[in-house]
Amino acid sequence: MIIIVGLLLLMFFAYLGWSIIRVAPVVATFVAYFSGLKVLPTYTDVYMGGFVNLAAKWFPIFLLGVVFGKLMEDTGAAYC
């Protein structure tokens, strides 16, 4: 049940325009605490482990997106 509350909180804050990068760790801590789990091991092992795996898999896409954005900015194509 608490996981559904966590998902609803995440959707609510996303709807308000808050950054998911900032809200997701807070909601994950909230869910871990109220689920009866130990907060620090859950946060450092489960949550951050998943985040690192995601970042490692998608790093080339992130890097190419940054390079493309910088190229668009430097050439002036982003200002048309």
Structural features, described:
- Helix 1 packs antiparallel against helix 2 (20-34) and helix 2 (20-34) packs antiparallel against helix 3 (39-75).
- The chain is elongated and about 55 Å long.
- With 80 residues, the chain is mostly helical.
- It has helices at 2-15, 20-34, 39-75.
**Rg value:** 17 Å
Helix content: over 70%
The shape, in one word, is elongated
Total of DSSP H or I helical runs spanning 4+ residues: 3
- Overall mean pLDDT: 90
What percent strand?
A: under 5%
Give the uncertain stretches in residue-range form. Answer: none
Distance between the termini: 49 Å
Order of helices and strands: HHH
Biggest β-sheet, characterized?
none
Instruction: Indicate the structural class.
Output: mainly alpha
For the secondary structure, the number of strands is 0
Defining key terms:
80 residues; mainly alpha
Secondary structure layout:
Layout (H helix, E strand, L loop, with lengths): L1 H14 L4 H15 L4 H37 L5
Helix pairs in contact: 1-2, 2-3
Quick structural overview:
The chain is mostly helical and 80 residues long.
